[in-house]
Amino acid sequence: MPPVQGQRPEVVLLMGPPGAGKGTQAALLAEGRGLRKLSTGDMLRGHVDRGTELGVRAKGIMDAGELVPDELIVAMVRSEVDGMRPVRALFDGFPRTPVQAAALDKLLHDEGVELTAAVALEVDEDELVRRLEGRARQEGRSDDNEATIRNRMAVYQRQTQPLLEYYETRGKLSRVSGMGSVEDVFERIAKVLP
Ligand code: AMP
């Protein structure tokens, strides 16, 4: 099926450490640009809540702040993108490892779509911890406790941060300050997107 007129493919990645505000900004950006928000964290929490086989496998891993195996994540993402015409997606929390980044490259190549942009939200570490502790009180996410938060930060630095360079080398990355109000951050992101 040809793309709907005026609807060109668009794929944006929202990256950054836990607590940087990816989820909030992803929702606003998806709405503003007419993109489908694909948050692997939300999808996984949905599986946990529904008690699916994937959810049962993922729960302990998520509660420990570790990463769910690449092949499970890639299959989950692929099934969301399959049949999307044109592909208009905003990824929140994906890719998180080099294997996932390579799988995304392949997926986009198979779909004949070019990555539009990757945006990395940057927030001071003290502020990240403050936000995550606030979210723990408000939302009661089972992975927002101190030990898990610390591990998620370490996992981010070890496994996901190197990906920023991967996109930077390809001229796709914009680093944006995630400090300040939701509106200010949203405006900064809007300015760097093509
Ligand atoms: P998030 O809501 O993005 O902070 O994700 C919550 C948890 O879900 C993470 O700490 C991981 O355990 C898991 N998760 C989410 N996205 C991914 C991904 N792309 N790869 C591996 N694990 C993920």
What are the salient characteristics of this protein?
single chain; 194 residues; alpha/beta; Rossmann fold; five-stranded parallel β-sheet; 8 helices; binds adenosine monophosphate
What can you see in these coordinates?
By secondary structure, this protein is α/β, with parallel strands linked by helices. It has a single domain (10-184), classed as P-loop containing nucleotide triphosphate hydrolases (Rossmann fold, 3-Layer(aba) Sandwich). It has eight helices and five strands; from the N terminus they run βαβαααβαβααβα. It has helices spanning 22-33, 40-50, 53-63, 70-81, 98-111, 125-139, 146-169, 182-192, and strands spanning 10-15, 36-39, 88-92, 117-122, 173-177. Adenosine monophosphate is lined by residues 18, 40-41, 44, 61-62, 65-68, 73, 93-94, 96, 100, 143, 152.
Short description:
This protein is α/β, with parallel strands linked by helices and 194 residues long. It has helices at 22-33, 40-50, 53-63, 70-81, 98-111, 125-139, 146-169, 182-192, and strands spanning 10-15, 36-39, 88-92, 117-122, 173-177.
